[in-house]
TrEMBL record:
A Pfam family: LRR_8
Protein name per the record: Leucine-rich repeat-containing protein 15
Alphabetical list of Gene3D superfamilies matching this protein: Ribonuclease Inhibitor
Domain of life: Eukaryota
Keywords: Cell membrane, Leucine-rich repeat, Membrane, Repeat, Signal, Transmembrane, Transmembrane helix
Compartments reported by the entry: Cell membrane
Gene Ontology terms: cellular component: extracellular space; plasma membrane
Predominant location: membrane
């Protein structure tokens, strides 16, 4: 027995020594004010120095670290060889955000030959030089967002031929020099949003032959050279939202035959030249919202045969000519809210007086005095209908008789006083109905009964008259599984004794 106990003690002692050795070894290479641990599905070796008030880069980063996170400190300089001098270092991910970094020593990131992701967001870098990233050949993602970079000079990224994503958002970039992106032969995504660019020169994006997404949102771009995008043969998404453009020229897009998404919203565009989009035969989404476009006709839309989404909302003085959308046979979503256009089938008709609207699934309109029954009858596959800022007093019983696929109906604040009894009966797939903030005082007793479980009904903000004619609505709301918008519960307006009472709590014992 004694022998067995002694053996057991020896075994526990060995186990204790092994654990102590492991802990000591783990802590030995962990810098002060940092944490070292293994995490993630692959058990990566992490070094984390967050909010440690460090004023200098830690000196003892083990070469076995795979993830280095040093954020929210006060480190003005990334020194030479911060990861040691051995080329066998295993660092793959480095996050140096929010440190106040002003400068980077030459070749600071050249030693970790496996480095894939480098984030330097929200620091104080005023320039980018090729010395900063010398030797960082394996880097695939580089984040420089939120710095003070004002210009991009030639060849600053020339050694980063494997880079896939370059993010320069939220800087103060005013100019892009000739050949600034030369060498980035494999770049797929370039983010330049929220800068101070005013013009794009002819060689701004030279060398970016594989870029698929270019984000220039929220700059101050007024001028685009006709050749600015000419080298971007594989571009699929171009975002020019929130700039100061006043026209759209066809030369801009001549070489962008692979473009799928074009966002020109929130500019000052007054004129779209004829055939401006003629080369964009693969375009799927075009957003022209929030501009000053004066006219839209068939010549403006020429070439957009494969367009699925068209947004023209908030062009308040636009004149929409007959046949404007005739070529858009694949259109699935159309947003015409807050335009002065005459909304009707004539916009989809050609000279033979035939229409193409059968693929439209989402329709967004405003400024109507009645439901556009002629349009609705030509959109059998419509799934979402949204109407705003209108004066539609009645939803007639035949309103949706050709729209059996309609699922979401939004008729908020459109002046409704009446919904006729059979108006919703064709909508077997209804999942949401919003009729709040109108002038409804009652509803037909059979209107919502089929939808007490399948659809969410929003009808608050109406002056409901709570007599026995509305008792059915109370019972409907009290049924198990009934669904309505809890963010705005409907209350009684009249009679005075019930004003302010919630409809679903009414007692209708005398009815």
């Amino acid at each position: 027995m004694i022998s067995v106990m002694a053996s057991e003690r020896r075994r526990w002692m060995v186990l204790f020594i092994l654990i102590l050795f492991f802990v000591t070894s783990s802590l030995a290479g962990c810098p002060r004010k940092c944490q070292c641990y293994r995490a993630g599905p692959s058990g990566d070796d992490w070094l984390k120095c967050d909010s440690g008030r460090m004023t200098a880069f830690p000196r003892s980063i083990s070469r076995t670290r795979e993830v280095v996170v040093i954020r929210n400190n006060q480190i003005p300089l990334v020194p030479e060889n911060p990861f040691g001098t051995l080329s066998t270092t295993e660092v793959r991910y480095v996050f140096l955000d929010n440190n106040g970094i002003e400068s980077i020593s030459e070749g600071a990131f050249s030693v970790p030959r496996y480095l894939r992701v480098l984030s330097l967001m929200n620091n104080r870098l005023e320039l980018v030089t090729s010395h900063y990233f010398k030797g960082a050949h394996a880097l695939q993602k580089l984040y420089l967002d939120g710095n003070l970079i004002s210009a991009l000079n030639a060849n600053v990224f020339q050694e980063m031929w494997r880079l896939k994503l370059l993010s320069l958002s939220r800087n103060v970039i005013v100019t892009i020099g000739t050949n600034a992106f030369m060498g980035l032969a494999e770049l797929n995504e370039l983010l330049l949003n929220d800068n101070h660019l005013t013009a794009l020169g002819s060689s701004a994006f030279t060398g970016l032959r594989d870029v698929k997404k270019l984000d220039l949102q929220d700059n101050s771009i007024q001028t685009i050279n006709n050749l600015a995008f000419s080298s971007l043969y594989h571009l699929e998404e171009l975002i020019l939202k929130g700039n100061h453009l006043n026209q759209v020229r066809y030369q801009w897009f001549e070489d962008l035959s692979q473009l799928r998404v074009l966002d020109l919203s929130d500019n000052r565009i007054k004129q779209i030249v004829n055939q401006a989009f003629q080369q964009l035969t693969h375009l799927k989404t075009l957003d022209l919202s929030n501009n000053l476009v004066a006219a839209m006709g068939m010549a403006k839309m020429q070439g957009l045969n494969n367009l699925n989404v068209l947004k023209v909302a908030n062009n308040t003085n636009i004149a929409m000519r007959d046949g404007s959308f005739w070529e858009l046979a694949d259109l699935e979503m159309l947003d015409l809210r807050n335009t002065s256009t005459r909304m009707g089938p004539q916009m989809f008709r050609n000279q033979e007086n035939t229409t193409k609207m059968d693929k439209i699934k989402k329709l967004m309109l405003s400024g109507l005095t009645a439901l556009p029954l002629d349009l609705l009858s030509l959109t059998p596959n419509l799934e979402i209908l949204q109407i705003t800022d209108s004066n539609i007093t009645v939803i007639p019983s035949q309103a949706f008789e050709n729209n059996v696929n309609l699922r979401d109906v939004f008729l908020n604040n459109v002046g409704l006083t009446t919904i006729e009894e059979e108006a919703l009966s064709p909508l077997r797939n209804l999942r949401k109905l919003e009729i709040q903030n109108n002038y409804l005082v009652s509803l037909p007793s059979t209107l919502l009964k089929p939808y007490h479980r399948s659809a969410v009904i929003c009808f608050h903000g109406n002056p409901w008259h709570c007599d026995c004619s509305i008792a059915w609505l109370t019972r409907w709301m009290q049924r198990r599984g009934a669904r309505w918008c809890v963010s705005g519960r409907p209350v009684c307006k009249t009679p005075r004794r019930k004003a302010g009472q919630m409809i679903w709590k009414l007692s209708n014992g005398r009815c």
